[in-house]
Amino acid sequence: MSEARFQNPGWAGNTGEFDLTEADVRGSDFAGEPPLDGGHPSVAPSLPFMLVKKDPDAPLFEGPYLERFEKIRGRYPTARAALLPALNLAQELRGHVSPETMDEVAGLLGLSDAFVRGVATFYTMYNKRPVGRFLIQVCTNISCNLCGADKVLAAFLEHTGTELGQTSSDGNFTVAEAECLAACGFPTCVQINSRYFEDVSVDDVPAVLERLKREVNDGF
Amino acid sequence: MAYPYRHEKETRILSEGFGDPAARTVAGWKALGGYQGIARALEIGREATIDEVKASGLRGRGGAGFPTGLKWSFMPKDARRPHYLLCNADESEPGTFKDREIIRWTPHQLIEGCLVGSYAIGAAHCYIYLRGEFFESTLVLARALEEAYEEGLVGKDIMGSGVDIDMTLHVGAGAYICGEETGLMSSLEGRRGEPRVKPPFPAAVGAFGMPSTINNVETLAATPHILRHGGEWYRQWGTEKSPGTKLFCVSGHVNKPGNYEFPLGFPMMELIEDVCGGIRDGRALKAVIPGGSSVPIMSAEDCRECSLCYEGVEAAGSMLGCASVIVMDDTTDIVKQVRRMAYFYAHESCGQCTPCREGTTWATRILQRIEDGRGTEDDLDTLIEISEQMTGTTICVLSDSLAMPIISSIEKFRDDYLALIRRGERVGAA
Fold first, then answer.
1. Is residue A115 packed enough to be buried (19+ CB in 10 Å), middle (13-18) or exposed (0-12)?
2. Alpha carbon distance, N-terminus to C-terminus of chain B
3. CA Rg, chain A, in Å?
4. pLDDT tens digits, residue range B60-118?
5. By the CB < 8 Å criterion, does A146 face chain B?
6. Angstroms from A217 CA to nearest CA on chain B
């Protein structure tokens, strides 16, 4: 087609096309930094974050994280209902949820170890193994797939020098396939830690990885 | 251009604030008429609020299309036990990306909708179940909810009415099945997201064993507008059976994919050809999935006269679902795409019911075999047979959701399957 490619605002690299900045699109200026203690109790169960920095030995839970955990517990009529948010919180700190972490969370909530393991292994977002600083999840479901998501996934694997699900030797990247991320109008959608990168084409992949490497160096 | 998904023919009710960062604040939302809907609801009372929504004819936007006002009226009237409103923001149907736009651009539209719903059903606590992947949009909603609490719009004695409505944001952890209403309740309670047998229906025994109502984000977002302007006002758009406007999520091989808001009954071809700028590279239309991946595939021929309302898409042999229009051009490899969908359902099956757990995996293997050029014509009969056994035999409709695209694709694109089976030829690009 002779017409210029129609560009989406979701993809950070393309926002120059519009009046909106990347922060406008992401809402990051409005939302601000999520407080470690969870902020208002009504939103405390909703602030799990996938961070670059992971500490597999971090205690469950201390300081502001303990405050957030207490706020979460206060929002539900049963202790069990706090399980998913508590596992999210553990993963935010430790980067993954090991069997030992599951047992610790079980102890905190007074649930059986077996029950918690059954629940934790049901959900795909709990990383059962350690992952890289950036977990790159490429949507390959139908809408993205129609627009070449398989090739975008292959490009991420090639440029990070990894196999699917493996972590690169520098510890920076783990590339995985994801199911529909609900950004079907902006194919291919790639979720990298807590952010969506949308309208990613094969040609964009090196620039995305460069940006991520800079963020590691900047201590993001 | 601020927000690219605009078209002059649109009727923007829900999407008015999309692309406007100011609409994320309480002040910005009030400038667009926000919080007048809940104010009117509090003024006219519970019963009248339900009646207004009934009069509007609003149908659930999560896929099933059940009348919202009627659903609310099923809730017990006594207040002896706590009632809960659960907002389903676990948007994960492949092809659907409307709820995320509502949440990230107009969070107060959803909060106000949750207030209207909670008030109507007598719930003092509303849980918004967001999918875990929505980190960024959840942060926007979280900030907005904190502001709503600060302004006295949510919490104790909302807007000085004496009514208490609390709200909690709850995030999932990656499971498609938690978008099913009883699966969502199980997950909210801290269990595996396994759907439950109905009856008992959620209005009798729901979350935490209490009467509960589950509504989709887009459904709740429409209710403040209905309360503010009246049920009759909402009926000026759409058809008799499908009143109002709807966000259409168009994805796939069109020049301008995106969310567009139109009255229900909008012609499908006009949406594809005109609004979305036609098929990319000037190619021909091959197939459309009109309502997210769980509905029957339509051929180009089926689309020609199809109007996008519940009854219109049904007449064309499919279902409107959540109006996620996935467009495929003539280079599309249908077998590959159906196999990819089958893989998705196999991955997301919760495993409770045998026809689903075994059927989705078995169908995926057969489709993979056909795609690899090792299939036989008997495989097509087997696929149909498995699909029929996956229909209506399980607790929820996840396995039915795979059966429909399999059966319809074999009916409508049998030649694509046969080309692979007989000659090892892939139709369309890889």
1. middle
2. 35
3. 19
4. 999 899 999 999 999 999 878 999 999 999 999 999 999 999 999 999 999 999 999 99
5. yes
6. 23
Which of B2, B250, B282 is facing A185, going by the closest CB pair? B250
Predicted ipTM of the assembly: 0.94
Residues B169 and A74: beta-carbon distance below 8 Å: no
Interface of B with A in 284-323 (CB under 8 A): 289, 293
A142 touches B at CB < 8 Å: yes
What are the tens digits of pLDDT across the range A64-100? 999 999 999 999 999 999 999 999 999 999 999 999 9
> Where is average pLDDT lowest: A47-51, A104-108, B338-342, B375-379?
A47-51
What is the band of B304 on the pLDDT scale with cuts at 50, 70, 90?
very high
Cβ pair B133:A191 closer than 8 A: yes
Q: Which residues of B touch A143 (CB under 8 A)?
A: 94-95, 251-252, 326
Query: Quick one: which of B186, B177, B202 has its CA closest to B75?
Result: B202
Q: Where are the extended beta strands (E) located within chain A?
A: 134-139, 173-178, 190-192, 195-197
Task: Say whether pLDDT at A220 is over 90.
Answer: no
Chain B residues whose CB is inside 8 A of the A123 CB are 132, 172-175, 193
Q: What is the pTM of this model?
A: 0.96
Residue the block writes with tokens 């009759």: B232
Alpha-carbon torsion (B103, B108, B113, B118), positive or negative:
positive
> 10 Å Cβ neighbour count for B256?
18
Mean pLDDT of B134-156: 97
Q: Name the residue among B149, B250, B252 with its Cβ closest to that of A146.
A: B252
- How many whole angstroms separate alpha carbon B86 and alpha carbon A77? 14
Three-state DSSP state, A163: coil
Query: Residue B28 in contact with residue B22, Cβ under 8 Å?
Result: yes
Q: Percent of chain B beyond pLDDT 70? A: 99
Interchain contact B49–A (C-beta under 8 A): no
Q: What is the pLDDT of residue A18?
A: 64
On whether the CB atoms of residues B268 and B308 are closer than 8 A, the answer is yes
CA distances from B95 to B141, B158, B265 (A): 22, 37, 20
